[in-house]
Amino acid sequence: MANGEALGVINGNGKYSKLVLGPSTLVPIGAAAGVVITLITGTIYLERKFNSIERQMDNMQLVLNAQLRDIRMSMASRWTAHDMKVWTQELKIKNPTLEVPDSASVVATRDKTALDTPIL
16 with 8: CB under 8 angstroms? Predict the structure, then answer.
């Protein structure tokens, strides 16, 4: 310590005595050093492990965001039944001589599996 002071403790009699690590110490120096080294090593290991997990989660978040963006883009360009109805009406108006079936009748004649797939 400062000014040549030694590290010490106050014993049961209220007297100050120097702290001496030796045979009378309850914890052997080797065991104390082993515990400290184990704690430091464990802390470094856990820090690396948590950083690795955090990087993996960040990568998964990027992948999920990209997939969500792709899904939203594909949904934005879907051809809906309403779009088909509007298109057939416009086609009938612009081409009065052309025989255009009603979209509802086309949908009614299609089988169930065809209705489950989007119309692109």
Answer: yes
